[in-house]
Design brief:
Blueprint (H helix, E strand, L loop, with lengths): L5 H8 L2 H9 L2 E3 L1 H7 L10 E5 L4 H5 L7 E2 L5 E5 L2 E7 L2 H12 L4 E6 L4 E6 L3 H6 L6
Parallel strand pairs: 2-5
Antiparallel strand pairs: 1-2, 1-6, 3-4, 4-5, 6-7
């Protein structure tokens, strides 16, 4: 997991305009968040994903480009720092629940919240896995 501070990690690994959105309150999620949380240098994703808690929307919206288009997840897709970025409004619990339901299985979903200096991980398990799961294995 992360051994350096989030300031150092994000300011060096996230493009400047995306980092500014995180400083304003957007939360990085998806495979890029997982790669950063696991200190992976390999990027396999084709875009970046951000969600914005409703109470932070006004601060973040001021920094978004005006030429976005709707994406398939009821959010808006922008080109920021020459990369596709999907942005939508959600709360942390709702995002983690929906992401884990979407991916299913024994997958982990990650979020990095710069403002609260937190990395969140959630995973789903079917009832049979719960009986076999030992938290000390993590």
């Amino acid at each position: 997991m992360i051994s350096v501070g989030l300031d150092t990690l994000l300011s060096t690994q996230v493009p400047p305009k995306l980092f500014a959105l995180m400083e304003a309150g957007a939360i990085l999620c998806g495979s890029q968040a997982k790669n950063l949380a696991e200190v992976s240098t390999r990027r396999t994703d084709t875009d970046r994903d951000l969600f914005v808690p409703p109470e932070r929307w006004l601060s973040v919206a001021k920094l978004l480009p005006t030429d976005g288009k709707l994406n398939g997840f009821r959010g808006v897709e922008f080109v920021i720092d020459n990369e596709l970025v999907d942005v939508w409004v959600s709360t942390l619990p709702v995002f983690l629940k929906r992401a884990c339901e979407y991916y299913g299985g024994f997958n982990s979903c990650f979020c990095i919240d710069y403002i609260d200096q937190m990395v969140y991980e959630a995973r789903t398990m079917n009832p049979l896995q719960i009986q076999e799961w030992n938290p000390s294995d993590d």
